[in-house]
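ok trying this again, last paste got cut off
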Amino acid sequence: MSDITLYVTVVVLLFIGIAGVLYKRNLVKIVICLNIASSAVNLFFITLAYRPDATAPIFNAAPALGKLKMVLPAPQALILTNIVIGFATTALILTMAVLTYRANGTLDIRRLKGVEDNE
């Protein structure tokens, strides 16, 4: 897969995520759109760390280290951390959405109690 295709995929996913957050009114759909945007950021960092014809950063061939071309391990570790943090954040936001539904009887952000009607 070429770099241009990956960057276009990142832009499309980020656009879908941001547009969904701005235009959707259902709290669960907003959480899904936030996850799509987060996936776009993860893909962007992995795309930046990619090196053509490189191996995984596993040191199993120590004598040949000078000849090996490896991908960058730091962005991979950061993305793994971001995935775990994203999972915990998603669980927290969905828990808040469930509590909001119990309190208000709706997931529509326009019909929540205490939100003034600006129309």
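PB: full thing came through this time. Residues 3-52+70-104 form a domain with the Helix Hairpins fold (CATH 1.10.287.3510).
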